[in-house]
Design brief:
Elements: H1 18-28, E1 33-37, H2 42-45, H3 50-54, E2 61-66, H4 92-116, E3 120-125, H5 126-135, H6 141-150, H7 163-178
Parallel strand pairs: 1-2, 2-3
Helix pairs in contact: 4-5
Length: 197
């Protein structure tokens, strides 16, 4: 799986200037979703964000994501562990899965916007996802043993395993468990276009 960020646009706008606010407001006229991520409240303090989306007049989805939760004493913490700067979360899976959960929420909110003609706010949190993830507990050894038997060189990942190593290890593990020869998962002829009636 390769996440290429296709369709993503980056802009640099000074939201502290009048010109920047006008430029940003013009961009908002052409949008469906505004994402306020990892720096909770920053866009709101500049006069945009959740309040603008849900305060009437905004017919778009405003989604927020942070490490903690969107409310309470820790709702305004920035980055990871309260650092002044943004930081990558330690668990790659939770970071990616929180994005997936947010995308599902945004998709549902867009559907609601069409059906009910109303704006909607979506909040996601890495910490909340991690809590849910940890609640799942570990698999029983009898469930894990057959999987481990397919790859005797399987390495347990640690918190500092980088994404490139993780992807490489995943591909190697898949090749071992599913095979790479004829009619196996990575056999190129399996990836052909077939006309459907």
């Amino acid at each position: 799986m390769l996440d290429t960020q296709v369709g993503k646009r980056n802009v640099v706008i000074d939201l502290k200037s009048v010109e920047g606010k006008l430029e940003f407001r013009a961009l908002l006229e052409e949008r469906d979703v505004l994402l306020d991520k990892y720096r909770p409240g920053v866009i709101g303090r500049m006069g945009f964000g959740m309040r603008l989306c849900g305060g009437g007049g905004g017919d778009y989805v405003c989604a927020g994501a942070n490490v903690w939760v969107a409310w309470g004493a820790v709702g305004s913490l920035e980055g990871c562990w309260g650092l002044d700067e943004s930081a990558a979360p330690l668990l790659l899976n939770s970071d990616y899965q929180t994005g997936v959960v947010g995308a599902i929420g945004i998709t549902h909110a867009l559907y609601q916007r069409v059906e009910e003609e109303d704006s909607c706010n979506v909040d996601t949190s890495l910490n909340q996802f991690n809590n849910r993830y940890l609640d799942l507990t570990l698999h029983e050894e009898e469930a894990v043993a057959p999987i481990k038997a397919k790859d005797l060189e399987f390495k347990v990942l640690s918190h500092d395993t980088d994404l490139f190593t993780l992807v490489s290890m995943t591909k190697q593990s898949l090749r071992k468990s599913h095979g790479s020869g004829k009619d196996e998962l990575f056999d190129p002829p399996r990836f052909t276009v077939v006309e459907m009636c």
